[in-house]
Design goal:
9-stranded mixed β-sheet; alpha+beta; disordered N terminus
Length: 527
């Protein structure tokens, strides 16, 4: 019994050793198990490999914005607001344009015109996948046309990919070469890109900056893209620079006529981008495109400063005539419309001219007719000339040939200029007012006269009826139909008009463009 009792502590101790050994082994096992589990968990990301994406690095060779914050807002939100303000989808556009001519000034000045052009394009945003943007070089002397080696163009809206395959193909053409320096600061291309980003869904661009190159060479290089249905060509160009508002209206109106007649005769004085416009017209003529004027304005319409303005125009060219019918009136039908208009509003038009004359001479102020004072129809657009007479002798005659503003305001403006700004005469004095009479002439649109030579032209002019405009280069002259009474023959009339234009009466060239128009004259003291 006593022997047994002596061994009990040993048995208890052994049990404890076994117990603690088992616990230790369990803990070691648990620690090992947790190590493998935790290390596996700590070594794993939350992302699954089936969602793996290659990290994007900002190492793309991009052309950085040069005029953001100058020509347009550098802030993305503000730029978006600006373009939303100007860009409106043209729901009436049924035919996809192949060529667009779009201005390239600051958005404040030309944004409204550009917005209407891109509004036409927006209707076809899903069909257009490539845009060739062609603009003149403003900063680099350049022979030929320059292409970029950049991968993309950056704007506040992000990147637009450059179609490098198209660039490589174009670089094979004569007079085309890769030259980044021409693109680095050039705004004529850059200002088009944000509009394109908002007008189109998914597209690449082919930027082309040109310098000393003929319209024929430029057009030839771009001809391949006329055959691509998914491609549109945009020619970037502003119009006349730093003329008075009225002079700019006349010059830009003449450019409009050249474009609509597809006559590649636009000279540098008429456009910053004349070569591009002429190239567009050569392509339009070669491929029988139909031109259409989208919008025309100048900076005076925006700022109110009409002393030195810059003109802006936008045109589209398509392979088919617009489905929306546009009725082109003949001069005869236009003339009859003006006869009817003058019959109804003769008194109000003369009243406007008389008030404008008094305000000009007595107060040196420009009269602004108000809608509340005159019939609503007088705020339809129209072109007019106002002629002042002093005892049947000409005392001043100024006007417009393109209808760009309300006829009421046009008559008022023409009256002021006839009295105060006709360079052939001194300003009308207050002492002369009681001895003056005036007439208002309402003008039809212009119609080009096609001729073989000068003799053929003289045969086609209607003596005593036609008003005539002639133009060569940047020279232009106009005679109203009323001037016929000063001449006995067509030859005398034409020679005098050439002299007025700055040409010798004996000079002739078939490059001279000749246009006719008709007028309805409203005179004082005439029933």
């Amino acid at each position: 019994m006593s022997k047994l009792k002596k061994k009990e502590p040993e048995v208890a101790g052994e049990k404890k050793v076994v117990k603690y050994t088992l616990i230790s082994l369990f803990l070691i096992f648990l620690a090992g198990f947790n190590y493998f589990i935790l290390s596996d968990m700590l070594g794993s990301n939350d992302t699954y490999i089936n969602n793996f994406e290659v990290e994007k690095k900002d190492n793309e060779n991009a052309r950085e914005p040069a005029v953001a914050g100058i020509f347009y807002a550098s802030d993305r939100t503000k730029l978006d607001e600006t373009i939303r303000h100007y860009l409106r989808t043209d729901d009436n556009a049924e035919i996809q344009p192949k060529i667009l001519i779009v201005p390239h000034a600051g958005y404040k000045y030309s944004g409204a015109v550009a917005g209407k052009a891109y509004g036409v394009l927006k209707k076809f945003e899903k069909e257009i996948k490539r845009v060739v943007v062609v603009g003149p070089s403003h900063y680099v002397n350049l022979y030929g046309a320059a292409l970029p080696s950049y991968d993309s163009f950056k704007t506040p809206f992000g990147r637009v990919k450059i179609n490098q395959k198209a660039v490589a193909n174009l670089a094979k053409e004569s007079n085309f070469k890769v030259f980044n320096a021409a693109h680095k600061k050039e705004h004529s291309i850059e200002v088009q890109i944000p509009f394109l980003q908002k007008a189109l869904s998914s597209f690449t661009i082919v930027p082309v900056v040109y310098g000393e190159i003929s319209p024929e060479e430029l057009a030839s290089g771009l001809e391949y893209y006329m055959k691509r249905k998914d491609t549109v060509i945009i020619f970037s160009a502003d119009l006349s620079h730093y003329y008075t508002y009225e002079k700019a209206q006349d010059l830009d109106g003449f450019t409009n006529n050249l474009v609509l007649n597809k006559e590649a005769q636009v000279v540098d004085e008429l456009s910053c981008g004349a070569t591009g416009i002429n190239a567009a017209l050569l392509l339009a003529k070669e491929y029988s495109l139909y031109p259409q004027t989208i919008e025309m304005q100048n900076s005076g319409d925006v700022t109110g400063d009409k002393n030195q303005v810059v003109g802006y125009g936008a045109w589209s060219f398509s392979f088919s005539e617009p489905k929306v019918e546009i009725v082109q009136k003949t001069l005869e039908s236009e003339y009859q419309s003006l006869v009817n208009f003058a019959g109804l509003y003769r008194g109000e038009l003369l009243s406007i001219a008389k008030i404008a004359l008094e305000d000009a001479v007595l107060r040196n102020e420009k009269y602004a007719p108000s809608r509340k004072d005159y019939s609503d129809a007088l705020f339809n657009k129209g072109a007019s000339f106002v002629t002042l007479y002093k005892k049947d002798e000409l005392r001043g005659c100024v006007g417009t040939i393109i209808p760009y503003q309300a006829i009421a305001r046009d008559v008022s403006a023409s009256t002021y200029q006839a009295a105060m700004q006709d360079e052939r005469f001194e300003k009308v004095s207050s002492a002369e007012l009681n001895n003056l009479s005036l007439s208002v002439s309402l003008l039809t649109n212009l119609e080009q006269i096609r001729y073989i030579n000068e003799e053929d032209l003289l045969e086609k002019i209607e003596q005593g009826i036609d008003g005539i405009v002639i133009r060569e280069g940047d020279r232009q002259g106009l005679f109203l139909p009323s001037v016929w009474r000063e001449f006995k023959t067509k030859r005398e009339f034409l020679n005098a008009l050439k002299l007025k234009t700055g040409l010798s009466p004996s000079y002739w060239s078939n490059r001279i463009k000749v246009y006719r128009f008709k007028t309805v004259e409203i005179k004082e003291n005439e029933n």
